[in-house]
TrEMBL record:
SUPFAM superfamilies tied to this protein: CheY-like, EAL domain-like, Nucleotide cyclase, PYP-like sensor domain (PAS domain)
Matches recorded under SMART domains: EAL, GGDEF, PAS
Any one GO molecular-function label of the UniProt entry: cyclic-guanylate-specific phosphodiesterase activity
PROSITE patterns reported in the protein's UniProt record: EAL, GGDEF, PAS
InterPro entries (alphabetical): CheY-like_superfamily, Cyclic-di-GMP_PDE-like, EAL_dom, EAL_sf, GGDEF_dom, Nucleotide_cyclase, PAS, PAS-like_dom_sf
PANTHER family given in the database record: CYCLIC DI-GMP PHOSPHODIESTERASE PDEB, CYCLIC DI-GMP PHOSPHODIESTERASE PDEF
Pfam families, per the entry: EAL, GGDEF
Residue span, EAL domain: 450-702
Entry-linked NCBIfam families: GGDEF, sensory_box
Matches recorded under Gene3D superfamilies: 3.30.70.270, 3.40.50.2300, EAL domain, PAS domain
Domain annotation PAS: ranges: 169-219
Annotated protein name in UniProt: FOG: PAS/PAC domain
Length: 702
């Protein structure tokens, strides 16, 4: 197992022995085995042997047997220095008839002197030198990592849209481009050595002087933010807020200053608004914007002010395309198809990426007589387009479902339900089919269907007919903490299981998901505390519905429950789907930060789709990233999916985020994911969701 392999690797030792006898080599192996090492030795007799061996691998240590005829100790050390840039500790070892003094050995370049007839001393010297050598290597690696991190930080600071400066003893020592631009300077050198007091407006200078004096004593006791009048290079004053925090530059302590202006806040609001309505894969409007627009359209239609139609456009063979070119290539295909749709929709029409392989259009000024030609034109655009991706020519067709919007339509949810029924019928009929939905006599509306669902959910809550199911989330690196994702099932009055897909969509539409989330959370917390009382280090991943993100009382309620049940820190991880986080960005960011303040963690579910998924992390402090399940399809044979997973994992490691691969399909995928650095895995292959917490987490740890 992976954990066991890691432990064994730490105890291995690679030893080169320059000696003309097999006996000494065997004795060294026995000595090291007795002290807990698995020693692998390579015996060498001259400089050619040594050069050849060093070109193949670098040992942890080299033992030189004194008195060798073909190569001396000095020649051995010179040969190492010429052949490799890596340091190899050398121990000079006396043997009967060939003795050397400690001083002579160390002057020649050896780290120490020992003897084969004092095996305990030899073992201690080897252990000391290997430990020292490894510590030095780790220190060099850490130093290199720190330098690389400093370079990355500087690059991030330079590219940041925030105005940032570093101040040492009241003087500028660094300022990024945004800071220079804010105050009207061209180059960073223009500000170096200039007092930050010069950036403050006349009326606030005395206050800021006092702050600077106090900051020399201790920055930790000072306010971290000041509202001030600021002054740019031409003397023009403007309002802004300075935020302060301790920092260092080139090893010297200093103060970091970030300046926020009203323009910054306005730009951020605009960015958040744009991000919350844009689909990250195609650049079109997203589902939430489509839903909001459809509601407005239906309201106007009921008032008799317009007529329109909703089209759901399903790409027929998209799954085959995804299998052929991988997730990233499939996203590129969707993006290119989106550009084709943009070329034919009307200027007032709302085109969006609805979900997966489905696009949606709100087509204005359409009726039952005109919509057929409109839909056929969409179909023709799809059929005629050929995309060239990864040296493959790709083509698809579309099945289209249409729901008309006029003054007689009940509401927006009914419009969507009809469009979904129509596209399902079109898919069943076959490629290029177009179905315009016609209501049947006596047919229940979505509102009527949801009303029945609400009654069933309320009854189940009252009778406690919900059940928690658990699926293990397993570490690939030896961590034996017991992690489970929590799922919910509803029972009918006969005790038969009702799957989430049969009640959660209605719960989301009607707001009943709030009550279900509360039930799940309370029962998860009580189960969790019992696990800890039983001596099990258990962590639970719990999904939050979109409605709960907007529940203003949730955090207060949760804080009370965590305190009441004395829930261990960071044992609860809350999950929100990436698509929900994008469309409810402000609410998600606020919830994530609030959860961290309550010592709970936060995970983004179905992460990784779109051209730049990590853009979301600039606004949401996620601890875990759970990769979108389609990345696991044919992972062991799909180079495209492997490349995508590796790119996400590498970036996550850089940002210090933990990664989870869900829906893992087979054993072969485990080794692929482990090699990529994925932290945790989950899937029915390992264990299906179960009402019992019985997974053996030690099975993956050795």
């Amino acid at each position: 197992t992976f954990g066991k392999q890691a432990v064994e690797k730490e105890k291995k030792i690679e030893i080169f022995i320059i000696d003309d006898s097999f006996n000494n080599e065997e004795n060294v192996v026995k000595i090291m085995r007795a002290s807990g090492y698995a020693a692998h030795t390579t015996r060498l007799e001259d400089d050619e042997d040594l050069i050849d061996a060093l070109q193949k691998k670098i040992p942890d240590i080299l033992l030189y047997s004194n008195g060798m005829d073909l190569i001396s100790l000095a020649e051995t050390i010179q040969c190492i220095e010429k052949t490799t840039s890596e340091a190899v500790p050398v121990i000079s070892v006396n043997r009967p008839g060939h003795e050397m003094s400690v001083v002579d050995a160390m002057r020649t370049g050896a780290k120490d002197l020992s003897a084969y007839d004092t095996p305990e001393h030899l073992e201690m010297v080897v252990h000391r030198e290997v430990t020292s050598h490894n510590s030095l290597a780790k220190a060099q690696l850490l130093e290199s990592s720190i330098k690389e991190s400093e370079k990355r930080c500087e690059a991030l600071l330079d590219s940041s849209r925030d105005a940032i400066a570093y101040i040492h003893e009241g003087m500028h020592v660094y300022s990024n481009h945004s800071y220079l631009e804010l105050f009207g300077f061209e180059e960073s050198e223009d500000l170096e050595g200039m007092p930050i007091l010069d950036m403050v407006g006349t009326d606030d200078r005395d206050t800021f002087k006092s702050f600077l004096r106090d900051s020399h004593k201790s920055i930790t006791d000072l306010p971290n933010k000041m509202e001030l009048n600021l002054s740019n290079s031409d003397g023009t004053e403007f309002k802004g807020a300075m935020e302060f925090s301790p920092a260092s530059i080139e090893g010297e302590p200093c103060m970091q200053v970030i300046i926020r202006t009203q323009n910054n806040n306005k730009e951020l609001e605009e960015q958040l608004a744009l991000l919350s309505q844009t689909d990250s894969v195609t650049g079109l409007y997203n589902r939430q914007f489509f839903m909001d627009s459809m509601q407005n359209t239906v309201s106007l239609a009921i008032e008799g002010k317009l007529s329109a139609a909703v089209l759901l456009i399903h790409l027929d063979n998209f799954q085959d395309i995804k299998q052929s070119i991988g997730v990233v290539g499939a996203d590129q295909f969707l993006n290119e198809v989106a550009r084709q749709f943009e070329s034919v929709v009307g200027s007032k029409d709302i085109l969006s990426h609805f979900e997966g392989s489905t696009f949606s259009i709100i087509a204005h000024n359409q009726t039952s007589t005109s919509i057929d030609a409109y839909a056929k034109n969409i179909n023709k655009i799809v059929q005629d387009y050929i995309a060239n991706i990864k040296d493959q020519s790709l083509n698809t067709t579309a099945s289209i479902g249409v729901s008309l919007i006029d003054k007689n339509v009940p509401d927006s949810s009914e419009v969507l339900l009809r469009a979904e029924r129509a596209v399902k019928e079109a898919i069943n009929k076959g490629p290029t089919s177009i179905i315009v939905y016609q209501p049947k006599e006596g047919e229940l509306t979505q509102k009527e269907i949801d009303a029945k669902a609400i009654n069933n959910i309320k009854s189940a809550l009252k009778d406690n007919r919900f059940v928690l199911y658990f699926q293990p989330v397993i570490s690939l690196h030896g961590d034996t903490d017991e992690r489970y994702e929590v799922f919910v099932r509803m029972l009918d009055k006969k005790g038969e299981i009702i799957m989430p897909s049969d009640f959660l969509p209605a719960a989301d539409r009607t707001g009943m998901s709030l009550a279900i989330d509360r039930w799940v959370l309370l029962n998860t917390i009580t189960t969790l505390t019992q696990c800890w009382k039983d001596g099990k280090r258990t962590l639970f991943f719990v999904k939050l519905a979109a409605n709960s993100l907007k529940d203003t009382s949730l955090m207060t309620w949760l804080k009370d429950q965590l305190k009441k049940y004395n829930v261990p820190k960071n044992s609860l991880i809350f999950e929100v789907k990436e698509s929900v986080a994008v469309t409810s960005l402000k609410y998600t960011a606020k919830v994530a930060k609030s959860l961290q303040a309550l010592n709970c963690s936060f995970a983004l579910d179905d992460f990784g789709t779109g051209s730049n998924p990590f853009e979301l992390l600039k606004h949401i402090p996620a601890d875990y990233l759970k990769l979108e399940s389609s990345f696991m399809q044919e992972l062991s044979t799909s180079n495209e999916n492997q490349e995508a997973v590796k790119a996400i994992t590498d970036k996550a490691i850089e940002l210090n985020k933990l990664t989870i691969a869900q829906c893992v399909q087979d054993a072969t995928s485990l080794s692929v994911l482990w090699g990529m650095g994925i932290n945790f895995i989950q899937g029915n292959f390992l264990q299906e969701p179960s009402p019992t917490l019985d997974y053996d987490f030690t099975s993956m740890a050795g």
